[in-house]
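In the lab's daily routine, each protein ends up as an entry in a very long ledger. A line of letters takes care of the sequence, but it says nothing directly about the fold. The three-dimensional part falls to structure tokens, numbers that each stand for a local backbone shape. The outcome of that step, for a single protein, is printed below.
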Amino acid sequence: MPVNIVFASHHNTLKTAPYLLEALIQRRSQFLLEQINRSESTVSVVLMDDASMTDYNQQYRSKSGPTNVLSFPTVEGQHDMDQVLPDELAHDELGDILISVETAQREAQKKGISLHQRLTELLIHGLLHLIGYDHEISDEQAESMFSREKELFDFIQHHYARRKKMPQLTINVDHIATIRQARGGTEPDPVLAAGICELAGAKGIVVHLREDRRHIQDRDVRLLRQTLKTRLNLEMANVKEIVEIALEIQPDMITLVPEKRKELTTEGGLDVMNNKKKLFKTIRKMTKAGIPVSIFIDPDAAQVAAAQEVGATYVELHTGRYCDAENEQERDKEFHLIEQTAELAFEKGLRVNAGHGLDYRTTTRIAGIPGIEELSIGHAVIARSAFVGLDQAVREMQACIDQARQ
């Protein structure tokens, strides 16, 4: 493996940190090696806490406290900048890059960027040191290194340019049907509600056709398919009856979700890792029919990898734990996990949506995460509509998303 990720901390906590995705760092490091013509070279990226970095900083630089990044070439001055290497040198060991994750996290927060974006900047700096750049030798060298750092970072930013588009708002109208089913009548009609949502600016409608038909009915899905001007996203369990209905109705996309009879609402993400065979079979049917498939998952790197393996087009990241957090520290932790998982999914070629539990207080921050294309929001909008009307409730939620642009 050209890139070795090593965790070194006094309390051995970094490797299990939920906000730190090893797979993402691995892919980003390999991408950078390719850009500096070292795709076959080996480099070790050592992720440390401040205490461990302080020890190295004192030992090798005679400086107290932690620094953000240190580089240790295998052979001092072994290469001349980043020239293309001859074949006999293409498989060399470049050296080690030591990064304090705790320092990087503080710097990321100060700059208003994600942790992994800051880690990318530090990886670039460290790699350039390994191939011969040294900003401490002279002003000319410093300018040359700064210019190359900017060039590499700008290239990466361009590579991920399509991640910057703001997500679209899709409205789940299940709870309109829940009110209707409470009396067993025909009002309020979720099909009519969907039309109002579209007129108010929603870019799609989401409905969950459950096996027990507790709210949305077959009739609703069929009429929505015929009348919607935007997109119909059919949430569904991976069961034969509903799969056959989806293949017949042909929604614009489906989202596979876990489903329990006694749950009030979907309680968590689908376990893709332990259901690969069944999911692959269904996704293959949908793909053959031209229906894109999203899988509703918890923000977890392993589930992202499994979703890619079974052929999903999208993942929808479960935002419930973020929304239900009891304090700001817990909410920040869950937010960063969603942020990094969205970044990882994007890099794996998956399209990314998000939803569950989002309301008028929690939506803006999620909407600002690069790479998320759609936000699925239902209960908060329907609840708000009881006071201000459905049209106004949708427009207010759209305003929350628009705030992420500012």
